[in-house]
Structure to design on (908 residues):
């Protein structure tokens, strides 16, 4: 017998906006993480903010949970509808609403992906630089406060936002900001929705700052003998004041995996990847300065990629890192995402290496060291619960250590399911305040229940 | 008869921590705005977060309002204890708690001023660049989300924050963040307290990002025939991608006032002030590029100040702008603080000029045009209520127009008393959400009551 809320949905929307087809339920049951999948009862494709208001009304009326869905590239199970209900997929709300090159800003619907957005704006000399590797939706990136390789210069998603349109649990539609570059008016809600993972409201419009495409770009790589030497060099680069665009660490094991995956022929040593970007003379000066500094610190294999083909190849290798670990048959992986003050990084990376070595598992370490943020990717046999437990233990101990060092259990992937258990250790008394805010915004706990909070 | 809460305060704290001396009550009755002063019943000088927890307890017990006080340099009456009660002055909590040059961050108590902080950190090659002209306290700057001349590069106070320690109305002490450069953990509270003007909690510790002191700096000025030409040129500079450190507009009238005030001998025309800062070659390239671009647009009087004495003199003139208007006997002034998308600025500045001309009052226009933010400073005879009304009307109409253009009624000064009446126009349905958050954090309305919300 069909459940009442499904009937009402069928009456309220076009038939192609709702589905419970097997493949769609499956697609909306998981993301790119290892967290166990749960299928929603229904998938809904809104085409407007009004549709979102209506689905939220139905959710309230029948007390059926709602879980927003971007592209499902999340790494902490954020889109998994753990309490079932309705998965709200924003892929049809993927339009640019207003592009204002003269103000270097754009207003988009949440379902547009970052590459989709860039393909529209790049021809005007502007770009949206936040790059989490995956071609994620802008809505999902806001909701997880994503960042990635360019955060060392541009910050995280939260730093890119001027205004959000949000549908609240009670059906109210609000705007959190304005189109002005800065404001001291009212209480600041924009930053609160960034990283809220669909637990406080559904985002239906996003106004983003854009940046000029740098005139000139130079990419470079170099290697060191130890992970510690790499992170110390990264620290020195930061302190030098060179305004790098990207600075990534990749350990030797990860390099060997990605070489095997894509025949990149990179030197299989602990490596740093750099990108310098800006006006030509400045960039050339920066890359020379960096080269001198790194060589003084004993780097080897310094190599520059200045043409765009070589550069693209390098960053493709960097972005394929996690797939390189995951394509192996019968094996899958878990990922850590700690972030700590940069001076603590050499210690934290060493500690990660030790933990992996102790466990007997295979695991790589790489990440956005310019932010003090790195990932572990630890492989385990899918048929072995013991190996999964070991892998999770490593990430857990790393998260705890990062918090002890004044850092965070998640630099960019978000809390979702996997990082809920560290929320009290990280936030202490503030966790109760966060819970009371969740209660204020969503008193019936219908918006992505089971995420962020245990 | 002494009121009970004063007795309890006397029992709870050292005698030099509380006062109701006439001059202290007066000092805490006003800020630098024109809003009518109100004296508190008592002034309290906390020396620790514990003291703050205790005073909050007393406030709750006796239902006596509390108003935090930084240096009283605010421009919207934020420190005026409109419901009387206790003014909590943070000047004794002015220490650096932890300076970590290796992580480019510092944790301070709220009462330290920006110059006090810089005098400690500059010798390590680092600086805290946010510069609202006045030597404000870091706590006050967080609480108003201050910015100023350098926001065009570094953003506002909110963008500088990693962690706040806050004493809530119920006496709980929370930390809103961590020492990591980025995080996607929990709900983001840090940004919410920035700009909350003491209405949600009392800030007792602040962790700030620091920046390297630029190796090389060049300041420059030029003039144009109209305000519109200035703002159009500023827009062109922004679009060119030159990463300026400061870009200020000052209209001809303001220049003539500041010349009279400080004998600066600046050309009395509509002017732009620039500062380029970074690595030497880059800065030289930037300033050349800017010069070419501005001259193409018809600028005159291009002048470079590359030695530090000349530069300091130029920025001193810029910072004295509002004092230049205020030292005239029998006259005082009100200030506007609108901010709009940069493409709307030429129109908004023209509109401001028209309104001032119509009113028959004398008023200058200057501000941080790189952010789309500018101030009006309109003089009125203190003995004429009619002139004050006219001056306020101008600022009101400007605020409304800025909001219509997608901007904000306050770019950096905050809401306080004067901008409460524009909150609904600017925030619409979100205003109710903000009020419910105020209610959540401060159910008895004891923390700086009468501010932000009508
Ligand atoms: C290979 C790979 C590399 C990655 N590298 C990085 C990296 O470097 N940095 C990084 O930050 N992340 C990285 N990620 C993680 C992922 O790309 C980000 O978390 C991304 O932000 C998720 O976007 P999405 O559109 O896929 O969102 P989804 O995974 O679909 O959803 C994420 C969360 O957002 C919510 N949500 C989605 N849309 C809305 C909306 N409109 N309103 C309210 N809530 C909404 C969902 O409910 C969910 O809680 C990587 C992922 C992969 C697979
Ligand atoms: C000449 C002049 C020029 C100015 N130019 C600029 C400018 O360019 N840009 C700009 O942004 N501002 C400017 N201002 C305004 C002013 O300097 C800023 O608003 C500044 O941030 C106020 O800091 P303060 O320490 O004086 O705070 P106060 O005025 O003392 O207080 C401001 C608010 O902060 C709250 N507060 C203070 N300390 C705490 C705490 N520890 N916890 C919680 N709440 C607290 C107070 O309750 C009040 O609501 C200018 C002022 C003057 C006089």
């Amino acid at each position: 017998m069909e459940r009442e809320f499904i009937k009402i949905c069928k009456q309220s929307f076009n038939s192609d906006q709702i589905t419970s087809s097997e493949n769609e339920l499956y697609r909306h049951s998981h993301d790119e993480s290892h967290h166990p999948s749960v299928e929603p009862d229904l998938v809904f494709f809104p085409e407007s903010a009004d549709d979102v208001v209506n689905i939220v009304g139905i959710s309230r009326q029948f007390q059926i949970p709602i879980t927003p869905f971007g592209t499902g590239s999340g790494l902490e199970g954020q889109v998994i509808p753990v309490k079932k209900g309705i998965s709200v997929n924003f892929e049809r709300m993927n339009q640019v609403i207003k592009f204002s090159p003269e103000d270097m800003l754009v207003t988009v619907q949440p379902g547009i992906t970052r590459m989709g957005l860039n393909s529209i704006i790049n021809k005007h000399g502007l770009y949206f630089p936040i790059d989490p590797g995956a071609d994620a939706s802008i809505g999902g990136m806001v909701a997880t406060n994503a960042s990635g390789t360019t955060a060392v210069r541009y910050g995280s998603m939260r730093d890119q936002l001027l205004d959000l349109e949000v549908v609240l649990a009670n059906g109210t539609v609000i705007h959190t900001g304005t189109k002005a570059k800065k404001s001291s008016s009212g209480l600041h809600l924009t930053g609160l929705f960034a990283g809220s993972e669909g637990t406080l409201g559904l985002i239906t419009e996003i106004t983003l700052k854009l940046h000029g495409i740098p005139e000139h770009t130079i990419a470079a790589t170099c290697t060191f003998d130890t992970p510690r030497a790499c992170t110390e060099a990264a620290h020195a680069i930061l302190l030098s004041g060179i305004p790098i665009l990207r600075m990534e660490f990749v350990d030797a094991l990860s390099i060997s995996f990605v070489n095997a995956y894509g025949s990149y022929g990179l030197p299989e040593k602990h490596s740093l990847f750099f990108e310098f970007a800006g006006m030509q003379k400045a960039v050339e000066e920066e890359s020379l300065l960096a080269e001198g500094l790194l060589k003084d610190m004993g780097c080897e294999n310094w190599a520059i990629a200045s043409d765009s083909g070589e550069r693209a190849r390098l960053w493709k290798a960097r972005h394929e890192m996690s797939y390189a670990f995951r394509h192996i048959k019968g094996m899958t992986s878990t990922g850590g995402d700690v972030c700590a003050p940069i001076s603590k990084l050499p210690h934290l990376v060493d500690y990660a290496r030790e933990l992996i070595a102790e466990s007997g598992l295979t695991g790589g370490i790489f990440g956005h060291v310019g932010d003090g943020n790195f990932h572990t990717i630890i492989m385990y046999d899918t048929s072995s619960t013991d190996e999964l437990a070991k892998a999770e233990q490593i990430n857990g101990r790393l998260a705890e250590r990062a918090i002890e060092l004044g850092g965070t259990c998640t630099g960019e992937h978000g809390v979702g399911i996997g990082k809920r258990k560290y929320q009290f250790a990280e936030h202490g008394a503030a966790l109760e305040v966060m819970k009371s805010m969740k209660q204020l915004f969503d008193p019936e706990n219908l918006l992505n229940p089971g995420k962020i909070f245990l």
Notes: Residues B 31-32, 67-75, 78-79, 90, 110, 132-134, 136-137, 139-141, 143-144, 146-148, 197-198, 202-203, 322, 412-413, 448 surround flavin-adenine dinucleotide (ligand 2) (CB under 6 Å).
